[in-house]
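Appendix B, record 7
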Amino acid sequence: MMHYTGCLICAENLQYLDENIRMNCSVCSGEYHSNAQCNNGHYVCDSCHQADAVSYIESYCKNTTETVPAKIMLTIMKNPKIRMHGPEHHFLVPAALLAAYCNIQNDQGKGKKIITARERAKNVPGGFCGFYGNCGAGVGTGIFMSIITSATPLSEEEWRLCNLMTAKSLETIANSGGPRCCKRNSFAAIETATDFLEKNMAISMPGSTIRCEFHEMNRECKKNRCKYYPKPETPGLTA
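Structure tokens (predicted):
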């Protein structure tokens, strides 16, 4: 049984060491260097952590006809294959954006684009936000933009747009403050991306009010300090 939050093996809290040490994955037994393990000494590599999740994300996004990226993302997040935190969110963000974008644009290359996003997102490891100052959800919006503009390192305007997209997303994510929350950061990334498309490319992508349904499972939830934390309904008013 894989746990939804904390250590996937025993649900204990994770601890982050000052230096990478040699560890064996508790699932595949592969040997890695990492600085993250649970209080009981378990370590799960990124590949095992997200194996089922990324396949589910890819399949769902290829087949959905939904045009609201936030709805796509929230539906996927409700599947238990998607853990509370983890590198699968680095793929989830661009995949949800690509699915909605291609459905709106009637882009027949949706499947190929989503596969490309999966390949690129796997290069963004878990813990990227804290150890590299570069949240994978924000990077995911740059992956999305680079794919729809066919950007390369030699592009001009396309290069500018995909880097600016990432910068805007990271700024929004950073301003929410730590500690990390893969759900909150993914919500912020999606909202920033839809706003960016409207302002910079005149592409209208439907938005949606996001209320977090996962806060009770997040041990570090900021609660009322998070804009996505569900607020109590005021008597006599429509939420």
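Remarks on this record: The CA atoms of residues 128 and 134 lie 6 Å apart. Residues 182-201 form the longest helix (20 residues).
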